[in-house]
Amino acid sequence: MADSNSSVDALQKLNVRGIAEILSTRRDEILSLWIKERLDSDEFRDELISKRDLRQQSQQMVDMLTRSIKESNGADFEDDAFDDVRSLLNEISYMRAVKGYTPLENATYILSLRNVVIPLLAEEFDGNPEALVREMTYFTRLLDKMGLVMVENFIRSREEIIRQQRADMMELSTPVIKVWDKILTLPIIGTLDSRRAQMMMESLLQKIVETGSTVAILDITGVRTMDTLVANHLIKTVTASRLMGARCILTGVSPAIAQTMVQLGIDLTQITTRAQMADGIKLALELVGRAVVSAKALSQMSSGTTDAAAQKTATMVTHGTTITNDNTSRDRERR
Fold first, then answer.
1. Which domains does the chain have, with CATH numbers?
2. pTM, full prediction
3. Do residues 221 and 250 make contact, with C-beta atoms less than 8 angstroms apart?
4. Among 43, 83, 146, 233, which one is least packed by beta carbons within 10 Å?
């Protein structure tokens, strides 16, 4: 009885190796039919993959699958002989996930090989229905598992891409900008949750250390709603910045947010606030020893005949005074 079972197993393995022989001896025919089937299908999009890349990818898949079936002696797809095939499937799935393929398009690629190979199996095993059923069952099961691997890895790749994009967006949503020597600004837009608040604090503190800044402007013009959680995040950020030697100025407080903060009983008396970003920048310049004067005022001081006026002008220029042309523009409009 045992010898009979061994003979059957050996015969099955011999027949299974026949699949590899078909894939090997009729390789070019299989490739041509498979690629034609892909090009004629609705899933093919030449803007995502070229015909040359499709043929190269398909050729690599057929060759690797043929070799793995031979080395495994007809074992299931979980056999170690299919490790290279699984790696190639994962690589293709990741590439297709990046390019924007759908899960259906990803799985259909490998499953469509069945439509090409099964007619060839029927031709090769004509007159031997038992062997044909066995070969078709094995090859179909093999492709089904390969399709599952592609779908699973595709979903995993998409999740990885989404996580990376979310991290990039979080980083871009908390930009710390140096507006002047020792002055930083952090525009806050949208909803401020715990994760984003932590990233915002880390970015601000790191920038304070890198630039040696002593003033940080937190602009909440883009914050839609203010609640206790958001206020607590702001207070923690201000406190941490103060420990690093930087003073924070809160700007962009709208009337609606101001009313909400009063109703919630949020105490921001320890934080310097300004209604407009421009007012915050002006205060920040004063805190670092800078002055904002109009071009007209500077011109008048420069044209003075006294040495005191000249000395004062030179001192202001030496300390990097910020000059605005507001008055000059108004004078031109009046003229």
1. 2-167 (1.10.490.10), 177-287 (3.30.750.24), 292-334 (no CATH)
2. 0.52
3. no
4. 83
